[in-house]
Amino acid sequence: MDEDKARIARQFIEMIPHSRALNMRVDEIGDGVAEISMPYDPRLIGDPQSGVIHGGAVSALLDTCGGAAVMSHKDAPAGTATIDLRIDYMRAAAPGQRITARAECYHVTRSVAFVRAIATDEDRENPVATAAGAFTVERGGKT
Amino acid sequence: MSRKAPEPVQVIKQRRDAALSALVHGVPYINFLGIEFERRGDELTALLPFDDKLIGNPLLPALHGGVTAAFLEVTAIIGLSWAIIWEDMESGALDPLALTPETLPRLPKTIDFTVDYLRTGLPRDAYARARVNRSGRRYASVHVEAWQDNRARLYAQATGHFLMPPRNG
After folding, report:
1. Is residue B81 part of a domain?
2. Is B37 helix (H, G, I), strand (E, B) or coil?
3. d(C-alpha B83, C-alpha B76), whole Å
4. Is A96 near chain B, with CB under 8 Å?
5. Residues A56, B74: C-beta atoms closer than 8 Å
6. Contacts of residue A89 in chain B, CB cutoff 8 Å?
7. What burial class does residue B102 get, using C-beta atoms within 10 Å of its C-beta: 0-12 exposed, 13-18 middle, 19+ buried?
8. Where's the Thioesterase domain (chain A) (predicted)?
9. Cβ A55–B71 below 8 Å, yes or no?
10. B113, B122, B157: which to substitute to probe chain A, counting the most A Cβ within 10 Å?
11. What CATH number belongs to A2-136?
12. What is the ipTM, given to two decimal places?
């Protein structure tokens, strides 16, 4: 059952047009935890002088990863949308390196799923950004 | 003593539009999302023309939450940068016609950014405006509002804090 859920969530994430545009890859998903990464891409540069990726692209990765974590949680149905997301930027991601986000859906109520997430480049010890968010829990037939 | 004659309107427009274009089009990610800015005096409105690659939920369909976050962050950074360069541009200390991606002033760095998703982003164009609530020597606080059909019905808003670029000279 849980494996089914993870498979559906993975398929859903991988067919999202914007995730495809950023070449996102689901590295791990299940039990309320998701890990999604994306390659360095010159199209996503936010600071032309340093070649550092724009914070907005990191936000898109963290938001996708947060939603994926919610979808894979045992108490959440398949659908979700972001209510709010706060992102803290610790440092610039190193140009040329893959960015990986890991999100955990740590609590689910009838209506809300709470998520925290972290993004790193290839130096996995020093976070590039962290995020905290609340997501909707879409109950089928009631919306 | 007579007052200096006002600058011809074309000169003013060309200077401001050249500076804005250099600021916006020098950033690859802004071009990737297709964001453009419209200017009325110093007031900027960001435009996000709809495109299939901006979709986050193909079943509804709806704009990706990450696209909305990025759109608001781009609007905040350009709005703040625009406020920073305005005086230098108007006084002539900065020559917008000589600006290239290499010589652009450094952009502010995002410290944190909080997005409030108020309504589903519909598959159509979106607009946003930033308001610099505080701009100090080191830090700035910027609020952004985004809408689609009706200016009064926001689909998202955000507040961010930014580290100001070092002032040279």
Report:
1. yes
2. strand
3. 11
4. no
5. yes
6. 109-113
7. exposed
8. 51-125
9. no
10. B113
11. 3.10.129.10
12. 0.93
